[in-house]
Structure formats: structure tokens, C-alpha cells
Structure to design on (274 residues):
């Protein structure tokens, strides 16, 4: 019963936040809506016994990533009106039509019982200990590779931030 | 009424479609980027929900890796956006048509 209540409340918050992000013309409101969606998804992680993942979701996604987004939105300027005029004439009706078709397809697939594995009697308990146990045994190599990915990403960000157009590129503009 | 894994899968599907349509309908590069984040979050939710159903923790480890990749992606993507903005002072993806023949 409690889970149903949680699902209804935080599911509506997640949907409202997502719709705000897509439909609101101001990107700051959109970012706040997405933050609400991410926090409600963190609640669903807790309900589904992903305790460690929920903490990471709040700290990394709702915290760091969205703060970075808000920071860049403030830098790039939010007062500029978005030009919604399409240059491809069929883009908008096609996008809406394909979105609805995709949703119908997913609901059709999802309404069939396609989870073939039987429901497990023992609950998966995603504590820090249990997740770390998997992460540092079965998933050790991917975990090490992510360090490489993060180094490349930070070096790339620094290189992009220091980029200055050369004289020739300035002349061409 | 029990909340089964199917409910979370349905919610994830709806969130994913909202993100995909945001990607197709908006022209602001930042909003399009946020739509990608929303799609990643929707998929993460399905991982965790099915993982609970099958009693398997590997789904949560996959979510952890998706988060790492998304964090790296956001850092590089926003750096590119700022670099583009410095030269073109516009966040609209339609203005970036220099490769058009």
C-alpha cells in the first residue's frame, strides 16, 4: 500500500518534471523540472532496494550534473528566445507521430509478460557492500576502464576550454 | 494492489518517450542535452526495477556505469557547447549549418 502511494506521488512528480523540461520555453525551469524527475527516480531506486545507486543518483545526477547544467545555462544566457521555426518542413508532425507510435509499441511490448526469469524469492539488496562486492570482482575491468574514460573527459574539457581561434579562423568568419 | 516491475517499466517507457520527443522538438542545444539525460535516467529505472524482480544486482552495477559515462559525456558536451557559443553566440542547433553544401 505504501509503495502504491509512493509510486503515484513520485511518478506524477517525475512526469510533471519531464514535461516541464520539454515544454517550458525557459531552460532554467526545464533544468529544475529535470532535477525533480531525477530526485523522484532516486526515490524509486530506494523502493527497489538500490540504496547505493539512490545515493549516487542524488549526489552525482541531481547534484553535480544538474548544477553544471544550470551553471552553463546561466553562462549562455536564458533571455534569448528560442526560434522554433523548423527548417525541415515535415520534422514536427513526423516527430510527434513517431513519438506516439513508439509509445504504443513500447506499451504493447510491455503489456506482455516478457520478463522470462522467474521472480526471485530473496530480494536483491543493493547496499554499498553488495554492489562493491560485484564491482570489484566481476566488473573490475570495466571499472578500471572508466577511470581512463574520466581522465580523457577531463583532459578534453580542459583542452576545449583553452581553445582560442587562430588568426586564420578569425579571418574566415 | 501490488506495484510490480511492470509499473516501473511503463513509467520508464513514458519518461523515455518524453525525452525522445524533447530531443526531436526543441532547438535549444542545452534542452536537447537534458532530454538525453532524461532518456538515460528512464533506462536506469528499468534496470533497477527488473533487477529487483529477478533478485539480481548486476543491473545496479550497470546503472553505476551508465552514470559514470553520463557524467563524462556532460563534461565534454557542455565544454563543446561553450566553445561553440563563444564563436557563434547562439545555443540553437539550427544555426550550426556550416557543413551544408
Amino acid at each position: 500500500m505504501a509503495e502504491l502511494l509512493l509510486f503515484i506521488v513520485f511518478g506524477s512528480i517525475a512526469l510533471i518534471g519531464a514535461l516541464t523540461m520539454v515544454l517550458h520555453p525557459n531552460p532554467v525551469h526545464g533544468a529544475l523540472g529535470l532535477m525533480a524527475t531525477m530526485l523522484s527516480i532516486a526515490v524509486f531506486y530506494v523502493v527497489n532496494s538500490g540504496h547505493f545507486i539512490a545515493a549516487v543518483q542524488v549526489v552525482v545526477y541531481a547534484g553535480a550534473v544538474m548544477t553544471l547544467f544550470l551553471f552553463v545555462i546561466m553562462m549562455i544566457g536564458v533571455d534569448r528566445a528560442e526560434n522554433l521555426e523548423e527548417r525541415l518542413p515535415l520534422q514536427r508532425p513526423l516527430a510527434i507521430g513517431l513519438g506516439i507510435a513508439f509509445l504504443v509499441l513500447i506499451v504493447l511490448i510491455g503489456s506482455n509478460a516478457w520478463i522470462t526469469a522467474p521472480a526471485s524469492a530473496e530480494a536483491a539488496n543493493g547496499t554499498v557492500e553488495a554492489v562493491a562486492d560485484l564491482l570489484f570482482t566481476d566488473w573490475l575491468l570495466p571499472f578500471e576502464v572508466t577511470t581512463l574514460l574520466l581522465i580523457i573527459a577531463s583532459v578534453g574539457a580542459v583542452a576545449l576550454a583553452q581553445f582560442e581561434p587562430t588568426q586564420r579562423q578569425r579571418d574566415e568568419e | 494492489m501490488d506495484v510490480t516491475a511492470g509499473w516501473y517499466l511503463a513509467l520508464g517507457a513514458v519518461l523515455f518517450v518524453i525525452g525522445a520527443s524533447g530531443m526531436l522538438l526543441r532547438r535549444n542545444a542545452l534542452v536537447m542535452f537534458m532530454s538525453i539525460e532524461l532518456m538515460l535516467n528512464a533506462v536506469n529505472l528499468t534496470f533497477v526495477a527488473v533487477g529487483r524482480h529477478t533478485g539480481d544486482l548486476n543491473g545496479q552495477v550497470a546503472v553505476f556505469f551508465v552514470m559514470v559515462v553520463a557524467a563524462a559525456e556532460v563534461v565534454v558536451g557542455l565544454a563543446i557547447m561553450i566553445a561553440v557559443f563563444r564563436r557563434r553566440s547562439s545555443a540553437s542547433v539550427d544555426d550550426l549549418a556550416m557543413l551544408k553544401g
Remarks:
- The radius of gyration of chain B is 17 Å.
